[in-house]
Amino acid sequence: MPVSDSVDLESAADSGTAAETGSEGRPAGLPINELFYSLQGEGTLAGVPSVFVRTSGCNLRCWFCDSYHTSWEPTHAWLDLEEILAEIDAHDADHVVLTGGEPLLHEESVALLEALDDRGYHTTVETNGTIYRDAPIDLASVSPKLASSTPTPERDPDGEGEWAERHERDRIDMDALARLVAEYDVQLKFVVTDAEDMPEILDLLADLRAAADVPVPDDDVLLMPEGATRERLAETRDRVAELAMEHGFRYTPRLHVDLWNDAPET
Ligand SMILES: C[S@@+](CC[C@H](N)C(=O)[O-])C[C@H]1O[C@@H](n2cnc3c(N)ncnc32)[C@H](O)[C@@H]1O
Ligand SMILES: Nc1nc2[nH]cc(C(=O)O)c2c(=O)[nH]1
Ligand code: SF4
Ligand SMILES: [Mg+2]
């Protein structure tokens, strides 16, 4: 569904704060940037037909964010849960991917996941790993953000580095990460550009293994090449594949970028 053609479009929301669902006369619901049917493009379920629900608003600002209109310039329609569920049910899919923006910012994401679980869907949540919520999540697809994601003045797509300090402060929450790996089936999906990212990944894994009550096998660690376009992926993917082999981690493609480049609703 092209949400941009839909009802009640509100732009430039104050992202970075939890959604005010159910307050101020608004029906309980979620700020939805887009809702579409595609193939899961990333991770261990790559290739699986899935409905994607993309919430708007993020507590971080990665300079490379491929979903600019949920983070740097958030736009969305407010849809109540029944509307979202009806759109999902209209597609013939068993898998639903809740993504964003940062979907776990929103308390109402839990109610959506509960309703999806009741209906028998497999749920994947794409999250930056800074927020823990208790919800029926079949696969927590956690993408902790490395220092190379920080929007320094040279890399800020929208200004002069005003977000760098807050992003740097908030990008890793070890307690939230440890709870996510303890409570859910998790894949850790790191966005990698080159070998300079690796020491930080190894340090983060060591810290997480020390903090978590459960094992974090290398098999659950995926390296994903940075690139929102085919052109950019062509520059990063070979190096990232070699790094995955060198370290014994998995490599994940970005199938949707290979197939549809940076088209919306793919
Ligand atoms: C837009 S984010 C939304 C979910 C959540 N905020 C997060 O970052 O995990 C969805 C996925 O896209 C990845 N991503 C965003 N921009 C990317 C880029 N330019 N290259 C590779 N992966 C990117 C994120 O790391 C995450 O795994
Ligand atoms: N096809 C496709 N697969 C995806 N896997 C994770 C995505 C995301 O943006 O979270 C995504 C996306 O945007 N499109
Ligand atoms: S955490 Fe996810 S949605 Fe937020 S800015 Fe980074 S990639 Fe974009
Ligand atoms: Mg995406």
Automatic annotation (TrEMBL):
Cofactor note: Binds 1 [4Fe-4S] cluster. The cluster is coordinated with 3 cysteines and an exchangeable S-adenosyl-L-methionine.
Pathway(s) the chain acts in: Purine metabolism; 7-cyano-7-deazaguanine biosynthesis
Binding site for S-adenosyl-L-methionine: 64-66, 101, 143-145
Catalytic reaction annotation: 6-carboxy-5,6,7,8-tetrahydropterin + H(+) = 7-carboxy-7-carbaguanine + NH4(+)
Residue ranges with Basic and acidic residues bias: 153-168
Chain positions recorded as [4Fe-4S] cluster binding sites: 58, 62, 65
Segments of this protein annotated with the region Disordered: 1-27, 142-168
InterPro entries xrefs: 7-CO-7-deazaguanine_synth-like, Aldolase_TIM, rSAM, rSAM_sf
Binding annotation for Mg(2+): 67
Residues holding substrate: 39-41, 54, 99
PROSITE patterns: RADICAL_SAM
Domain Radical SAM core, chain residue ranges per copy: 45-262
Cross-referenced Gene3D superfamilies: Aldolase class I (3.20.20.70)
Keywords, sorted A to Z: 4Fe-4S, Iron, Iron-sulfur, Lyase, Magnesium, Metal-binding, S-adenosyl-L-methionine
A GO MF term: carbon-nitrogen lyase activity
Known partners and oligomeric status: Homodimer.
Functional note: Catalyzes the complex heterocyclic radical-mediated conversion of 6-carboxy-5,6,7,8-tetrahydropterin (CPH4) to 7-carboxy-7-deazaguanine (CDG), a step common to the biosynthetic pathways of all 7-deazapurine-containing compounds.
Family per similarity comment: Belongs to the radical SAM superfamily. 7-carboxy-7-deazaguanine synthase family.
Protein name: 7-carboxy-7-deazaguanine synthase
Gene source species: Natrinema ejinorense
Gene: queE
